[in-house]
Design brief:
This protein is of the alpha/beta class and about 290 residues long. The protein has 9 helices and 7 strands, in the order βαβαβαβαβααβααβα. The protein has a single domain, classed as Rossmann fold, CATH 3.40.50.720. Helices cover about 40% and strands about 15% of the residues. It is globular. It starts with 8 loop residues before the first strand and ends in an 11-residue tail after the last helix.
């Protein structure tokens, strides 16, 4: 059976663990050749070895040279680039009173500058080919804001604006650019949150459960594939209750231990509902 990404080449930044690894695994399962970019080259190599049809490349997404080398590795090794997933990220949570300027800048540089560099480098290759899909990882934090995350919330909101603007620049060349705005997803990064904060965020989720990396990977697959051929400049995301609304149900207990990339796919209506969004009317190059 032919996969949705059969014969295509994808680059995933921050691909050695968490959401990035789940996306890389799903892409390989759907027939893609994947280049795993990560600042932790040992973890990237381990991930690539486990995937089989994959290449590991060390990449600091805040470095223009590293990002260019990552994209070049995909083109040189596999002959082109069809999908770019800008997923690499960091957390440096603290209230504004306690947050250092260095921590604010690190988060903005990683998420915003890193996404911009990846989008720019991938779009340059895809424009020449006349096709391609770029998927940028935002967050629901960019919609609603979170206490202790002025840096992260600002960065993830910026990723959405960047995505919409980039989509208008390259749509005429056959390149699509979309963003994913996940809610609370169980990954090593989120598992580092304090238990009381985790439970508070869980109470704000209408579905009363956290998401799995495999569910985000399913959305990334949809956006990367031809199923989303008429979708660009959009943010596909979760929902949270307003902070003042409470629920009578007790949230499920937080499970112990690490998660794996295995699990359920995205709910049946999610992808179809997203496809109804209209692309921007203006697609002129600027």
């Amino acid at each position: 059976m032919t996969g949705l990404l059969s014969g295509r080449t994808a680059v995933v930044t921050g691909g050695a663990q968490g959401l990035g690894r789940a996306i890389a695994e799903r892409f390989v399962a759907e027939g893609a050749r994947v280049v795993v970019g990560d600042v932790d080259v040992a973890a990237a190599e381990s991930c690539a070895a486990a995937l089989g049809s994959a290449l590991a490349v060390r990449c600091d997404v805040t470095s223009e040279e590293d990002v260019a080398a990552l994209v070049d590795a995909a083109v040189t090794t596999y002959g082109g680039l069809d999908v770019m997933v800008n997923n690499a990220g960091v957390l440096r949570d603290a209230t504004m009173r306690k947050m250092s300027l260095d921590d604010f800048r690190l988060v903005l540089d990683t998420h915003v500058q890193g996404t911009w560099l990846g989008t720019r480098a991938a779009a340059a290759v895809m424009r020449e080919a006349g096709t391609g899909s770029i998927v940028n990882m935002s967050s629901i934090s960019g919609k609603v804001g979170n206490v202790g995350q002025t840096n992260y919330s600002a960065a993830k909101a910026a990723v959405v604006g960047l995505t919409k603007a980039a989509a208008k620049e390259v749509a005429h060349a056959g390149v699509r650019v979309n963003a994913i705005q996940p809610g609370l997803i169980r990954t090593p990064m989120t598992e580092a949150m304090r238990e009381d904060i985790w439970q508070q965020r869980l109470r704000e989720i209408p579905m009363q459960r956290f998401g799995e990396p495999s569910e985000v990977a399913a959305v990334a697959l949809f956006l990367a594939s031809d199923l989303a051929s008429y979708l660009t400049g959009n943010g596909v995301g979760g929902h949270r209750r307003p902070a003042h609304v409470t629920t009578t149900r007790e949230p499920p207990a937080r499970p112990a231990g690490r998660i794996t990339a295995a699990g359920r796919g995205v709910p049946a209506g999610a992808a179809a509902g997203s496809a109804a969004c209209r692309p921007p009317r203006s697609a002129r190059s600027r």
